[in-house]
Amino acid sequence: MASSGTIVCIIYAFGITVGVANSSLKLECDETNTGQFGQQSLLKCVIKQPAVKVRVVIWRKVGENEEALLVFEDTVKKQVQGFRFVEPFWITNNPDLSMLINNTKMEDEGEYLCTVVTDAGEGEKITQLKVKARYNQPTIKQTKKTKTSNVASYLICESFGGYPEGELRWFDEHDKDWTKSSNMTVKKTDNGLFKLSSWLPLMSGSTYESYTCKVYDGKGVEEGKVFFEPNKQTDPEASVNNEELKKETSPAAFVAPVVVIGSVIVGLLLLLLYRRQSQSPHESVEIQDPDVETGDPEYEVEYKNQP
């Protein structure tokens, strides 16, 4: 970076040479910019002088190769994919030279140098981009695979997709912090984001009914939480059975059987009434010879209808 009173020449492959001297131009850039992972990020730089004719603007990332990302010289001469000027200042005469980064990635984090040449002077400023990603809603699962005799089970809380490195904390139903009793691991994924995992041992005879796992960002700001009751049945099949039980005990479950039973009773009553009317008052109904039906010769059964 060129300091005041120093001349620096920046030469690029396409033949642009920029000399920066005295830094007399009133160029103002935000010292730090925060961008969200996967979204657009704005690096703010404006000229605080009226009626200025912009001749050259160069944006580049400070680093190993320091390749130019955006170059303007009377028109846009270079524009790396994913980077662009916020607005066409060369048409609107608005001295807003800010750069927009599309689909911000972790590798976009760092320092950027904006170099400007105008008819009123030259200047350059460095601005920093910090990339932030919000952690996903944490999840909890319970495992009873333990290697310690006095540990009944473990609660495992996980959250991923965040940046910078955050923290998982445990609380019981009385809001008592049990984080010191847990063990947290941090893994950096291929896209540069972090995955957090925390194991909380539940001792044999534990009387706490519920636990809450909360995820915090790098500054200690809560970004999500999940509630869990270890003693509740969490088997998916049990959940299905509970739903079936609700259906079986619902009012609709009793209506159909009652209707069917009522219909059968009415039918039987009608049949009995019909038979009574079709027989004489003293007609007897005899069962076949017991010798044929039962093989018992001692009994002969006769049923008589009553008036």
TrEMBL record:
Main subcellular localisation: membrane
Domain Ig-like: 38-132, 138-215
PROSITE patterns, sorted: IG_LIKE
Biased composition (Acidic residues): 286-300
Keywords for the protein's UniProt record, in alphabetical order: Cell membrane, Disulfide bond, Glycoprotein, Immunoglobulin domain, Membrane, Receptor, Signal, Transmembrane, Transmembrane helix
One Pfam entry name: C2-set_3
UniProt record, GO biological process: cell surface receptor signaling pathway; cellular response to lipopolysaccharide; immune response; negative regulation of T cell proliferation; positive regulation of T cell proliferation; T cell costimulation
InterPro entries xrefs: BTN3A2-like_Ig-C (IPR053896), Ig-like_dom (IPR007110), Ig-like_dom_sf (IPR036179), Ig-like_fold (IPR013783), Ig_sub (IPR003599), Ig_V-set (IPR013106), T-cell_Activation_Regulation (IPR051713)
Name of the protein: Ig-like domain-containing protein
